[in-house]
Amino acid sequence: MEILSVAFSIFLVFNVIGNIPFFIAILKPYPEKRKNQILIRELLIALAVLLAFAFFGDGIMHFLGVSMGIIGIAGGILLFIIALTMIFPKHESTAAPLHEPFIVPIAVPIMSGPGTITAVMIFSHQLASMWDLTLAIFLAWLPSAIIVLAASYIKYIVGDKGLVAFERFGGLLISLIAIQMITSGIIDLVHRNFDVPTKKNVSLSPESFESQDRYVEDPLVQLWIPTISNDS
């Protein structure tokens, strides 16, 4: 179930439905067969980029001295900005490029941009193994690829207003994910830098402490605060 939850979150960050007008406009000069060939190539490149960061992203961040708390806060802010652009879109006319798209801009940054890469790196710490994360990425990538390949038909069926509605709803969900990432990142930084006791390093049983201690039932902090004795 957790794999499906992560896969759905990554699918939302892909935002392929909101980018359907972009895919149609940028590939307009090419015949249908060539369009599909370009899209399949770019989708496979995007998948390879995400898998590379899923397996080696932690090592790169560790080499740079960046903790998961910082990644969570930065990634959450980035996703929140992306969510705002989805909720309040500014659809501008996209001119077709002079040359055939290769990696940029479809594979990177549209499909595997900074927001998607950061989300994958954060979700890698929420699943039991890297193979679970690989499965989640693939489960998010597969329906995204189908939607991209069927972009023209989807736009014909739902229309421009339907695409905007889907994009805004996706932006709302991504904003919730972003806030959760920021909150988790802040809590992680507090625990690391201020040595705040957690469930892992403190007993939460009131019987294991003296009767004059006061237990704070806070789901985020959960601390023991000794009361000051009158004898002292």
Give a verbal description of the structure.
The chain is mainly α and 232 residues long. The protein folds into two domains: 193 residues, no CATH class; 36 residues, no CATH class. 66% of the residues lie in helices and 3% in strands. It has eight helices and two strands. Strand 1 and strand 2 form a beta hairpin. Helix 1 packs antiparallel against helix 6, helix 3 packs antiparallel against helix 7 and helix 4 packs antiparallel against helix 8. The chain is globular, with a radius of gyration of 23 Å. The C terminus is likely disordered.
Overall structural class, as computed from helix and strand content, comes to mainly alpha
The number of helical elements comes to 8
Quaternary assembly: single chain
The gross shape turns out to be globular
Question: How many beta-strand elements?
Answer: 2
Write down the domain tally.
2
Rg over alpha carbons:
23 Å
Mean pLDDT over the residues = 82
User: Any low-confidence stretches, pLDDT <50, length ≥5?
Assistant: 200-205, 208-216, 218-232
What proportion of the residues is helical, as a percent range? 55-70%
Q: Report the end-to-end length measured between terminal Cα atoms.
A: 53 Å
Give the strand order, joined by hyphens, for the main sheet. 1-2
Write the layout of secondary structure elements.
Blueprint: H1 2-14, H2 20-26, H3 32-64, H4 68-87, H5 106-111, H6 114-123, H7 130-149, H8 151-194, E1 213-215, E2 224-226
Antiparallel strand pairs: 1-2
Helix pairs in contact: 1-6, 1-7, 2-8, 3-6, 3-7, 4-6, 4-8
